[in-house]
């Protein structure tokens, strides 16, 4: 089969959708200790870019997504979302500890955001069915969340986020609980959606391979407190080839950067 090679979207991207300007964030733990989660974060994300975030556990990745979503506020610095191109209602978030509403069947969970927008019941259920098929959950429309495995719930949460056709999609380790074959299928699905829709994505992963397969840029964080070690632009055509020497070189480079912060 002939594969379609698409040029990298970094070239020619236009407006900034989201920017972090000198952002810092800390927490006070229950025992009263101060925890610095993020320091000196400067990051400009163009509308339509796919940005992946990698770094050790506790380096502030979830904190950064929470700040982007506006569900947490920075201690210092500022975050701005270009609301003319990305209204707040068009921001979707797949949480690290993904949640479905336990009192709604899977299809209604996926359709929930559409109900809030006044979309008719028939259209909601059709859209929900299509998305459930795309994430490999065809046949589970009428199931209750508690009847699904962890990986299936994760897939339903992804379908739920995609249902509103988001302009900014925040995803916190969304494929973490999936087997490798399903993970690759969903990587392809997300890559295709990103290619076909104008959507900015911030995607946290512990897999450098996944970060390089999907992203236009990989933001590499230091250990806690999280600072940006490198803003790595990926100038490789899509679909990315794991067998490509340049892919392997970049993989090893990022492994090297992360290893330096975990001596
Ligand atoms: N609500 C909170 N109260 C106190 N400390 C917090 C809170 N949220 C996060 N932290 C601390 O801030 C730091 C960053 O946490 P965060 O969850 O952002 O890390 P992470 O990079 O997402 O880690 P992981 O890869 O394990 O998900 C950690 O030290 C964490 O303990
Ligand atoms: Mg996290």
List the helices and strands and how they pair.
Elements: E1 16-28, E2 34-46, E3 50-54, H1 61-69, E4 76-81, E5 91-94, H2 106-116, H3 121-134, H4 150-163, E6 168-172, H5 180-196, E7 200-204, H6 208-214, E8 217-221, E9 228-233, H7 245-261
Helix pairs in contact: 2-3, 2-4, 3-4
The chain binds adenosine-5'-triphosphate and magnesium ion.
What labels would you give this structure?
2 domains, 263 residues, alpha/beta, 24% strand, six-stranded mixed sheet, 34% helix, 9 strands, binds adenosine-5'-triphosphate, 7 helices
Structure description:
It is a single chain. By secondary structure, the protein is an alpha/beta fold. It folds into 2 domains: 16-87 and 167-261, P-loop containing nucleotide triphosphate hydrolases (Rossmann fold, 3-Layer(aba) Sandwich); 101-164, no CATH class. The protein contains 7 helices and 9 strands. It has helices at residues 61-69, 106-116, 121-134, 150-163, 180-196, 208-214, 245-261; strands spanning 16-28, 34-46, 50-54, 76-81, 91-94, 168-172, 200-204, 217-221, 228-233. The strands form 2 sheets. Strands 5-6-7-3-8-9 form a 6-stranded mixed beta sheet, with helices on both faces. The longest helix is centred in the last third of the chain and has 17 residues, at 180-196. Residues 1-12 have low confidence and may be disordered. It binds adenosine-5'-triphosphate (ATP) and magnesium ion (MG). The site of adenosine-5'-triphosphate has 13 residues, from strand 2 and helix 1.
